[in-house]
Amino acid sequence: KKNLVVAIDGYSSCGKSTLAKALAKKLGFIYVDSGAMYRAVTLYFLRNKIDVNDDAKVTDALQHIELNFHSRDYESHITLNGDEVSDEIRLMPVSENVSEVSAHKIVRHEMVKQQQRMGKSKNIVMDGRDIGTTVFPNAPLKFFMTADPKIRAERRFKELESKGNNEVSLEDVFENLAHRDFADTTRKESPLVRAEDAIILDNTNLTQDEQLAFAIEKVSPFL
Ligand code: C5P
Fold first, then answer.
1. What are the CB-based long-range contacts (under 8 Å, 24+) for 112-120?
2. SS3 call for 205
3. Which residue spans adopt a coiled-coil conformation according to this UniProt entry (predicted)?
4. Pairing of strands 5-10, 83-84
5. How many folded domains does the chain comprise?
6. What CATH number corresponds to the domain at position 202?
7. Distance CA 110, CA 13 (A)
């Protein structure tokens, strides 16, 4: 039987990774956080002062970046050239620069290639912005997640706060989300758009359990 890829796309901070992790755990699938890859590349560019407007530098840098996922109880952990960077890639310096880096054609090309390799023979749940449209356009099951922007900002703010991040305000988080939504939906290279065959999941008023139940119901015919 052929492997199954479940694609989950949607706006920033609307619970894609929470649902993707829960679904992967329930199904015994591998969870792949594609956003973490763009974030880790962004961190590398920041650390090494790579100018995104310099295509030659970008191409060269990508050859020096090795990303690996380490799944620990379905929490996605990512290493950048062997360094554990899972926490650092969630902080504001990366969040503020990731949309610009991820809009780069050469960066996307390389990440998509790596992502397609991961879904070639394994059962996976992958979340991101272009999974159902570009990475796995033939995935049999696609979700497109959305939620009220204010709710999304509050959720992300609480998450940052719980991790001891007290420097950012709710307004900063809201602005960053709005900026990333705009950048992600209007960029030239595979912009965030709902695949025609993606199932819309607006979770503004849904609990995590309700979202999981909804997703399981949609997946079961494919198992
Ligand atoms: O999912 P997350 O919010 O961590 O992703 C960070 C950023 O990475 C997004 O705002 C988007 O610019 C980029 N991204 C992307 N394509 C993906 C996943 C993430 O362009 N498949």
1. 112/190, 114/37, 114/67, 115/32, 115/34, 115/37, 118/30, 118/32, 119/3, 119/5, 119/32, 120/3
2. coil
3. none
4. unpaired
5. 1
6. 3.40.50.300
7. 24
For residue 53, which amino acid is it? N
Cα(217) to centroid(ligand 1), Å:
27
The boundaries of the domain holding residue 70 are 5-222
Reported ipTM exceeds the 0.85 cut: yes
CA–centroid distance, residue 102 to ligand 1 (Å): 7
Q: How confident is the model at residue 73 (pLDDT cuts 50, 70, 90)?
A: confident
Residues 6+ apart with CB under 8 A from 174: 149, 150, 153
Show the ligand 1 pocket: residues with CB < 6 angstroms.
12, 34-35, 38-39, 98-99, 102, 128-131, 180, 184
Closest CA to 73 of 30, 110, 134: 30
The total number of residues written for the chain in this structure = 223
Helix (H, G, I), strand (E, B) or coil at 36: helix
pLDDT interval class at 141 (50, 70, 90): very high
Q: How is residue 53 written in tokens? A: 């407007």
